[in-house]
Design goal:
mainly alpha, about 75% helix, elongated, ribonucleoprotein, Ribosomal_uL29_sf, ribosomal protein
C-alpha cells in the first residue's frame, strides 16, 4: 500500500473529508492497539495512517479558511 496522494484527496467533498478523518482516526487507534499488544504484523501501516490523517486535516483546514475569507 503506497502513501495516499494529496491530489486524490482534493477531489473529495467536505463531508467525505470529515468521514475519512473519522475513519482514519479509528484505523490509527486500532493499529496502535495492535502494536501495544504485539499483534501488528505491518508496522509501516501506522506511518501511512498518520500521513493520511495529516493530509486530510490540512485539506479540511484549508477549506475552512477559504470559506471564512468570503
Amino acid at each position: 500500500m503506497a502513501l495516499p496522494k494529496f491530489e486524490e484527496l482534493r477531489d473529495l467533498s467536505t463531508e467525505e473529508i470529515a468521514e475519512q478523518i473519522l475513519t482514519t482516526k479509528k484505523e490509527l487507534f486500532e493499529l496502535r492497539m495492535q502494536k501495544a499488544t504485539r499483534q501488528l504484523e505491518k508496522p509501516h501501516l501506522v506511518r501511512h495512517a498518520k500521513h493520511k490523517l495529516a493530509q486530510l486535516m490540512l485539506l479540511e483546514g484549508q477549506r475552512l479558511a477559504a470559506t471564512q475569507e468570503k
